[in-house]
Design goal:
This protein is an alpha+beta fold. Helix content is 18%, strand content 22%. The strands form two sheets. Strands 3, 4, 5, 6, 10, 11 and 12 form a seven-stranded antiparallel β-sheet that branches. It has a five-stranded antiparallel β-sheet with strand order 1-2-9-8-7. β3 and β4 form a beta hairpin.
Length: 492
């Protein structure tokens, strides 16, 4: 199709400008962005610290609407059969969530996860070259049962085992901080090796959901990558698989099939850290322990390493230094210039004024216009600044946070709409972000502007390859190493 015909197809609908205004200024919550896989040069060399996705939402598990769920996925592109040394968390990395509960753009609550690794069981006793063994029949006199437990009988073959500590930190009087260990020596769920070694992986993983009391639950272990995108097509200079790359009204409602795109992350896993806790634990004022009336939280995930391992870092006075942050994911991937990406990862969210030009003049919008020949909103995008960097347009500060309006009730999983506010579902992104939300399509339309909203611009991938659960930790079980699908799923 010629550019002239494509431009004709992308007609600005009368209501599209109003819809864009509703996305970034109106009654719907403020906007966010998409997902993060290898989005900066240095972090692409450090997958254990590379955050692929950050989710923050009110729990939609029945009976848990008073809880907030924070999920961080790391280790992009885990190939399930990658033995004998399967994927794990890195004990030298501190994995953290930061929460701003007073609208100043700075974190008031920090939740830190630190991991330890041990070699144990028959793997240690027999000096075996494998991390996980199980279901070994009698032969040499040694019988090794399948791995059915994280600890005790049934865990003998769980040779490489990780445990972790969860710590919550809040500001104290003056400039002091108060830290509380929520849990220690919790066992993480191992990678899904295969049906012989781990014959009931779901039951094994369920043991990794730890109830800490007071309404707090945590999980750490391997899960299926919930992000869905035609990754190769998008980064092949927007070489999408349909021209024009648009959805019809019928395709927009096709929430359960991929219409023309290929989910390039299908069959791959990630490592997940998830915590569910009462919203009051996050909204409470740090000094008085009183719950604020402010219904909005700002959140982000970040990873840190000992500063002796980080080169050319601007913060040398810390015991650990931040190596990545993630709130509104596609920000660093498609908004921030390549020459700035590593520095962006190292700075805190409230320092986003340094990068505000990339929001005012988004280069992604320019790329959309150059490739498709359709006018995009590529200059003076104060709407993006207000949506991504502020709680409200009148704020003076600029902080890149994912914002969650706690006054909006959660929707059950079966009632969630992948296009969120574009489909009348204000309980999803940009009001926080749920695993189901199709942030790729919404982001393309939001950054492209009214023409791309009117045309229903999309990558043609509408659903992940694994059904999502409606219970904590809300991410599907990982593909196993023996029987994984070797090619991306292409749904009809």
């Amino acid at each position: 199709m010629t550019r002239k015909l494509l431009a004709g197809a992308l007609v600005v609908a009368a209501g599209s400008a109003a819809l864009l205004a509703a996305l970034v200024r109106g009654p719907a919550p403020d906007a966010a962005s998409a997902a993060s896989h290898r989005e900066a040069p240095l972090i692409s060399l450090d997958p254990a610290a590379d955050i692929t996705d950050f989710f923050m939402f009110r729990s939609y598990q029945p009976g848990n609407a008073d809880k907030v769920v924070l999920v961080m996925n790391v280790q992009p592109g885990e190939e399930p059969s990658a033995g004998p040394n399967y994927y794990n968390f890195d004990p030298s990395v501190r994995y953290s969530f930061g929460i701003d509960n007073d609208r100043d753009g700075r974190k008031d609550v920090a939740l830190d996860f630190r991991f330890r690794t041990e070699i144990r069981g028959v793997v240690d006793a027999l000096g075996l070259p494998l991390s996980y063994v199980g279901n070994v029949p009698p032969g040499s006199g040694s019988i090794i049962p399948p791995i059915t437990k994280l600890d005790g009988p049934g865990s003998e073959g769980l040779g490489l085992r990780q445990s972790y500590t969860v710590t919550m930190t809040r500001p104290g009087p003056g400039k002091s901080t108060r830290s509380q260990t929520l849990a220690d020596d919790l066992i993480a769920v191992p990678s899904n090796v295969g049906p012989r070694t781990m014959p009931n992986y779901d039951a094994l993983a369920a043991q990794g959901i730890h109830d800490l009391g007071n309404g707090v639950r945590v999980f750490a272990g391997q899960r299926q990558d919930p992000f869905y995108i035609d990754l190769g097509a998008v980064f092949d200079t927007l070489n999408l698989r349909a021209l024009p790359p648009i959805h019809t009204a019928l395709q927009d409602t096709a929430d359960n099939v991929n219409t023309f795109g290929v989910d390039m992350l299908s069959g791959f896993n990630v490592h997940t850290i998830a915590i569910e806790l009462p919203a009051s634990m996050l909204t409470a004022d740090a000094k008085s322990a009183a719950t604020t009336t402010q219904p909005k939280l700002g959140g982000y995930a970040y990873t840190s390493r000992p500063n002796v391992r980080v080169r050319s870092h601007p913060r040398k006075d810390k015991h650990v230094v931040q190596v990545q942050r993630l709130a509104n994911p596609l920000v660093n991937e498609v908004l921030i210039a390549t020459k700035e990406k590593d520095r962006w990862n190292m700075l805190d969210p409230e320092e986003e004024l340094d990068f505000v030009d990339y929001y005012l003049n988004p280069r992604l919008a320019l790329a959309l216009e150059l490739v498709f020949g359709v006018p995009a909103a590529k200059a003076n995008r104060t709407d993006l600044v207000n949506a991504l960097l502020k709680y409200s347009p009148g704020d003076f500060g600029h902080s890149e946070l994912l914002r969650l309006d706690l006054s909006v009730a959660p929707r059950p999983l079966a009632q969630q709409r992948r296009l969120t506010v574009l489909a009348g579902d204000n309980a999803g992104w940009p009001n926080g972000r749920r695993p189901r939300d199709d942030v790729t399509d919404v982001a393309i339309r939001l950054v492209g502007g009214p023409n791309y909203i009117a045309a229903r611009a999309a990558d043609g991938v509408n659903v992940d390859d694994a059904p999502l659960p409606n219970t904590f930790p809300f991410i599907a079980a990982p593909a196993d190493g023996r029987d994984r699908s070797p090619t991306p799923h292409i749904n009809p």
